[in-house]
Amino acid sequence: MDATPLFRLFAALRRRQIAAQIPAVTQEALLLRLLEKAAGTRFGRDHGFAGIRSVTGFQRAVPLRSYDSFWRDYWQPEFPVLENVSWPGPIPHFAVSSGTTSGRTKYIPLTGAMRRANRKAGLDMLAAHLAARPKSHAFAGKSFMLGGSTVLKREAEGVASGDISGILAGSMPGWASPFLFPPADLARLTDWEEKTARIAEAALDTDIRILGGTPSWLLLFLEKLSALRVARGEPAEPALPHLELLVHGGVDFRPYRHRFEAIVAQTGAELREVYPASEGFIAYADRGTGEGLRLCLDHGLFYEFVPLEELDSPNPTRHWIANAEIGVNYALVLSSAAGLWSYVIGDTVRFVDLDPPRLLVTGRTSYALSAFGEHLIADEVEKAVSTAAGIIGAEITDYAVGAIVPQDGSIGGHLYVVEFDQDVSAADLARFAAAIDRVLIDENEDYEAHRSGDFGMHPPRIAAMPHGRFNAWMKSRGKLGAQNKVPRLIADPDLFANLRRFMGV
Q: I need a surface site. Which of 48, 103, 219, 225 has the fewest CB within 10 A?
């Protein structure tokens, strides 16, 4: 059954509702509803939610908080059974995410209200697709979001944790099941290599119209699918002949753009970017590539924006949608229907429009590396490099690490450009690389998943530099001096390419 005509009616109604929104009015009304809902929780009582009547009053009463302070002060003491702590009732799910400085894993509360908000935001994105492609028949086939296993870890009676994509996929409403791929038995698989192999086999004869996921994983899946078609005596391309929409998000898309544009050119499918997070579905592209992602204003998230340079100051300026400015690099702060309040999520954004609000994701509040979805932070990499140097008995003058994203379809990985203070043998360089790999696997679950079986990323590669090369590179960029530091984690592909060219790597 082609459900597109029915959904097109919903999409037209929803687009009219979104167009009628006054951003500041919509956001303040949402915040006040959230505060009323949570007024009786421990957090709500501690911060006087019952007496708050405005955004200004909320900002006076509720300070900015990181995950670490939320975990320490409110969630950890009662984890895993959080009932009426920062959101009314019990928390049934926790989205597991790596990347905190205080531990290997962080647990983000996920309520039924937040799951519904995420689904509604996804439908808004699909409504934008139908507006751009009025002849689309995206709902004549299956939708496939390449994500984590739907098998969750039982934390307590009625409480489970897992990957956010797996939680959402496993809790979809019954009416959606005829439109979803893969079948439940494949969605439950936890071994990534087995899962992708079996899903690819099943996808060969499935009419998949919508495909979504992290770009690096999507490329590997599509390449596997093409290889299977060749093995069956079919043309390798297009891998999914009926594809109409390819949704991507989670990492910087620039290194992958031209490869995906070639993929969608084979079918006429549309590329559409989204901004998902463990904390909620934040924004989606409703216009062309690079024109900004439209904020979801009425789906369980209240947004604040703190100028990045003020984030660590005693009294940072806290903007919201009523007084945010175009062109400023802001740290994004969320309050949500999952009991997050003025929560600094770690992303930075910059507005390109305000009415309606559209923004670009500009990076992280701390150094991070996530070209493949590995979500490494500086603290983890620093620990790995120092441990590895100790193992081989070497001292490091400087180093930088960045992602290598091959253009030939092979897997990518990290390249460490390292200046040792002495000559290091090839055998010791191999030990150094292996030690870095082991530490990061131990420290970061996302990295571990991507390195599993050398399927998603190849092992770390090391390029040893002679003494003085980093100083020479910094000088060549006009950055030599005590006030300038060699960037350790280089997420900017152009800057990393500049370093590699200068170093001859």
A: 103
- CATH domain 368-503 topology: GMP Synthetase; Chain A, domain 3 (3.30.300)
Closest CA to 340 of 98, 155, 71: 71
Q: What is the DSSP string of 75-133?
A: IGGGTT--BSSSSSSB--EEEEE--BTTBS-EEEEE-HHHHHHHHHHHHHHHHHHHHH-
> Chain centroid to CA 338: how far?
18
Q: What is the DSSP string of 147-168?
A: ---S--EEEETTEEEE-HHHHH
Could you please state the CATH topology (level 3) that the domain comprising 1-18+111-366 is classified under. Rossmann fold (3.40.50)
Q: Which residues contact 148 (CB under 8 A, 6 or more apart)?
A: 162, 163, 164, 165, 166
Asked if residue 88 has a cis previous peptide bond (ω within 30° of 0), the answer is no
Predicted structure pTM score: 0.80
End-to-end CA distance of the chain: 54
What does the buried/exposed string (b/e) look like for 238-274 if buried means 16 or more CB atoms within 10 Å of the residue's CB? bbbebbbbbbbbbbbbebbeebbeebbeebebbbbbb
Q: How far apart are CA 479 and CA 450, in angstroms?
A: 34
Tell me which H or E stretch contains 210: strand 208-213
CA separation for the pair 408, 196 (Å, rounded): 20
Place of tokens 């969605």: 187
Distance, in Å, from the CA atom of 413 to the CA atom of 404, rounded to the nearest integer, reads 5
Same CATH topology for 1-18+111-366 and 368-503? no
Residue-level pLDDT at 482: 47
Q: What is the 3-state secondary structure (H, E, C) of 420-436?
A: ECCCCCHHHHHHHHHHH
Helix (DSSP H) and strand (DSSP E) numbers for the chain: 16, 21
Report CA Rg, the chain.
Answer: 23
Instruction: Give the whole-angstrom CA distance, residue 159 versus residue 94.
Output: 8
Q: Which residues contact 11 (CB under 8 A, 6 or more apart)?
A: 123, 126, 127, 130, 131
Interatomic CA distance for residues 234 and 223, integer angstroms: 14
At 2-49, the pLDDT tens digits run: 999 999 999 999 999 999 999 999 999 999 999 999 999 999 999 999
CA distance 220 to 199: 12
In the predicted model, what is the mean pLDDT of residues 103-119? Answer: 88
Nearest of 462, 464, 341, 309 to residue 58 by alpha carbon = 341
User: What's the token pair of residue 109?
Assistant: 């509360």
Q: Give tens-digit pLDDT for 129-181.
A: 999 999 999 999 999 998 878 889 999 999 999 888 889 888 888 788 888 99
